Amino acid sequence: MxxxxxDGDCLVILDQTKLPGQKNYxxxxxxxxxxxxxxxxAVRGAPAIGVAAAYGLALGGLEYKGxxxxxxxxxxxxxxxxxxxxxxxxxxxxxxxxxxxxxLEQAKPKSVAEIRRLLIREAKAMEQKDLETNLAIGRHGNNxxxxxxxxxxxxxxxxxATCGYGTALGVIRAAHQAGxxxxxxxxETRPLxxxxxxxxxxxxxxxxxxxxxxDSMAGWVMYKGLVNMVIFGADRIAxxxxxANKIGSYSLAVLAKEHDIPVYVAAPRSxxxxxxxxxxxxxxxxxxxxxxxxxxxxxxxPAGAKVFNPAFDITPHRYLDGIITExxxxxxxxxxxxxxVAAD
Length: 344
Fold this sequence. Notes:
Blueprint: E1 4-6, E2 11-14, E3 25-28, H1 31-39, H2 46-63, H3 69-84, H4 91-107, H5 112-142, E4 148-153, H6 168-177, E5 181-187, H7 194-206, E6 210-213, H8 218-223, E7 229-232, E8 236-237, E9 243-246, H9 249-258, E10 263-266, H10 290-293, E11 294-295, E12 298-299, E13 312-315, E14 322-325, E15 328-330, H11 334-343
Parallel strand pairs: 4-5, 4-7, 5-6, 7-10, 10-14
Antiparallel strand pairs: 1-2, 2-3, 8-9, 9-13, 11-12, 14-15
């Protein structure tokens, strides 16, 4: 399955809110449709969001019907702001937009047509690079997966969250392809059930043994000795290694520490925010209460119930045994190992 693909003059997005029951595709012909798809999680996962935003900027170039270069750049600046306002935590979104904008400034295309071609070319290159990055993450991560492993993962970090293969699921895929005897426990990932709906779907399609558990079962699964490794992704990583990921990741890391189970984060370099010193500086997105109070649009709580719905939490770096990147596995002290990544 592919989360997105470019089709001539539009971006085709697999609507992940409908999975696993339906495979519906959205044809986005302007940047506002891409922004809306990001906001409502039709496309999700930090790497996929970044690439979708890059294509959204390319669509912005196609939307402009004039011939004035400066007018187009002014319009693209507004497009960039619209896309950047969709989700605050996933730093890949801002990284992708910044990368494309840097290419615009460096190349200094002279005509509207040249700008349009550059935007599409750079977005396509970013999509291909993401796939290559994920494959590298998988290769490096396979080195820390035991030959027989029970792996607990959280949310969805596979092909649906990226441009193919995945980050944390990429490590799992690489271990499976290497012939290792692995079994995966996938947390359901409340409130939107990305683990139940998406991760289980991906692993089943790949023939990788997977067992679905509710989020509240994780501690018991660890206690029973069924898990000897925890791996999840990241939406933003601070300079000290503090990691923002889907809500519930912090709880898993604390439980794993109690049971002497190693915890790894798998993420590309684009998930690092070198401007932030620690996790307390990472903005945490809060989403609509209906995600908790309703299930399939049916109420599951009393009317008027108060809701706190952060989409992410922060796992302090002291709970992490390593951060798996395309450049290799970063180890504590993270300020030193991440500084090397920042310098590249």
